[in-house]
Amino acid sequence: xxxxxxxxxxxxxxxxxxxxxxxxxxxxxxxxxxxxxxxxxxxxxxxxxxxxxxxxxxxxxxxxxxxxxxxxxxxxxxxxxxxxxxxxxxxxxxxxxxxxxxxxxxxxxxxxxxxxxxxxxxxxxxxxxxxxxxxxxxxxxxxxxxxxxxxxxxxxxxxxxxxxxxxxxxxxxxxxxxxxxxxxxxxxxxxxxx
Length: 194
Hints:
Elements: H1 4-7, E1 22-28, E2 33-41, E3 46-55, H2 61-79, E4 83-87, H3 95-114, E5 118-122, H4 124-132, H5 139-150, H6 158-177, E6 186-188, E7 191-193
Parallel strand pairs: 1-4, 4-5
Antiparallel strand pairs: 1-2, 2-3, 6-7
Helix pairs in contact: 2-3, 4-6, 5-6
């Protein structure tokens, strides 16, 4: 996988004008805090639009999942992104935690799908490799690279920087696929499927 830092600064110029101002939503879901990041691909690079966290509180799981769905739906309605990247479930030591994470992801994915967004999934290793050049990069390294790539003057929340990293990773994948007519391709398990 290519390092996004090397390629993001010079987006492919052969894209159509409509694709040059694509808003991308990045999601880093969890049952207690679901982070989001929105970037604009201008055709010359990517710009920061917004980021933050949906905090679901400590209620019962169905209430928290509903809060994730409602929060993601509101973000989509407010900013009108056209595409969404989301982090895949990783195998945690605690099976219950992994299950809750998967359910929060599902709520976020359904919100995106209902809004008609193209949704792509990326592993944490793919995102870290694309942003920091190493699949083992620390969260702080990813945060610093996000700041550099988006020309931010202050640090976003650590969860929000992860979501922005996912958005950047997704934008990079779209940039490399568009010139080849593969914009409808999806990345699944590290492989492209049409």
